[in-house]
Design goal:
Blueprint lengths: L1 E9 L12 E7 L11 E5 L8 E6 L1 H7 L11 E6 L2 E4 L2 E4 L4
Parallel strand pairs: 3-5
Antiparallel strand pairs: 1-2, 1-4, 2-3, 4-5, 6-7
């Protein structure tokens, strides 16, 4: 699982059939210090996330397809957002969804 922040939307007028009706979002990994790092990644939204939301994403094809209800089908789905995070608490402090 990857803790990330939603940084953008993807709009595609032409896409593979399995993506029809799916919202595509750009996410960037988030460290436990609350800072973003690494490169943006394209994820399918499975929970209704939006820009600036802190989310949990699953980066494994079989699990991603299961979350979207596409289990048993061989479709090119690898990264899916499976949760919106309210707060992360560590011994170094916390990251609060509402204190963006």
């Amino acid at each position: 699982m990857i803790l990330s922040k939603v940084v953008g939307n993807i709009v595609a007028t032409q896409k593979q059939e399995c993506y029809e009706g799916c919202k595509l979002l750009l996410i960037r990994p988030l460290g436990l210090d609350g800072k973003m790092y690494g490169d943006d990644m394209l994820a399918i939204d499975g929970v209704g996330a939006g820009i600036d939301d802190i989310v949990i994403a699953v980066n494994e094809g079989g699990s991603a397809r299961d979350i979207l209800g596409h289990d048993g089908k061989l479709e090119p789905i690898e990264l899916v957002i499976c949760g919106i995070v309210d707060t992360v608490i560590t011994d170094q402090g916390s990251i609060n969804q509402f204190g963006k």
